[in-house]
Amino acid sequence: MTEKDYYAKFEVLQQLSQDLTRELALMKESISQVLEENAELKIENEHLRTRLSTVDNKKEDELSESRRTLEKLYDQGFHVCTVMYGAHREQQEECAFCLDVIYGERKTK
């Protein structure tokens, strides 16, 4: 190989090295952004879980005894609405009328 060939090859390798360095820097930045977003989502998820458990506990506390009984029947697979009271719910499908009877129109004490 001549000196020019070595120099040309060196320049090509140097350019490839610089391109790879730039690509690695961009990848590092992307990974940092993803990790930061992941951490934020974990915190938000934990806050939402806490809030959800608080809401669930409140829901149980706010229901009167009769509504809790209706809720148990509904959870066992029976309609509690006036439209289909006592009928079996097919494949545990949701019924808006039943849910309204159980959770709708809550009266504050």
UniProtKB/TrEMBL annotation:
InterPro entries: YabA (IPR010377). The lineage of its organism: Bacteria, Bacillati, Bacillota, Bacilli, Lactobacillales. One of its GO terms (biological process) is DNA replication. GO terms for molecular function: metal ion binding. This is DNA replication initiation control protein YabA. Residues 17-58 form a coiled coil. It comes from the Bacteria. Keywords: Coiled coil, Cytoplasm, DNA replication, DNA replication inhibitor, Metal-binding, Zinc.
